[in-house]
From TrEMBL:
Organism (species): Desulfofundulus salinus
Name of protein: Uncharacterized protein
Entry keywords, A to Z: Membrane, Transmembrane, Transmembrane helix
TM region(s), chain numbering: 24-49, 61-80, 86-104, 116-134
Length: 144
């Protein structure tokens, strides 16, 4: 619940109404990408979530819904310059490791056959996929 409220509030402050109106399709894309990746890994026994209302594929509902505003934030600050895009994705992916670590400490998330290094790689792949699909849909402008 805390992560959902934080994500929603941050996206409203950071992206604003204009950002929400422009990038909401990327939020939907992020929901699909995270659902496909995370639910498959939960089913394979890589990691598990605890607490919260279970939703689709073993993901807690509010955690899953927090992906939508996070996708909007990800797209809103995606650099126009191509040379800055990979560093941006790497930094954001690394920041999400702090959230994951906090979830582990609080007992909300548990690695079974998984590591933070795997999470970093998965975060990078997922974010690149979300941003590429956002560009393919015409929501994100191609880089310079």
């Amino acid at each position: 619940m805390i992560w959902f409220i934080f994500s929603l509030g941050l996206s409203i402050l950071a992206a604003g109404k204009k950002g929400w109106l422009q990038f909401w399709p990327v939020g939907l894309v992020a929901l699909v990408v995270v659902y496909v990746l995370d639910s498959a890994l939960v089913d394979l026994g890589a990691f598990s979530y605890h607490y919260g209302v279970p939703a689709l594929g073993g993901l807690p509902l509010l955690y899953f819904l927090s992906i939508f505003p996070n996708g909007i934030i990800l797209a809103r600050f995606y650099p126009l310059r191509r040379r800055l895009r990979l560093p941006y994705v790497l930094v954001v992916a690394a920041l999400f490791l702090f959230v994951e670590r906090f979830m582990i400490i609080t007992g909300s998330f548990r690695h079974l056959h998984w590591t933070l290094e795997y999470s970093l790689v998965l975060n990078v792949i997922g974010m690149i996929l979300v941003l590429w699909l956002g560009e393919w849909l015409g929501v994100i402008k191609p880089g310079e």
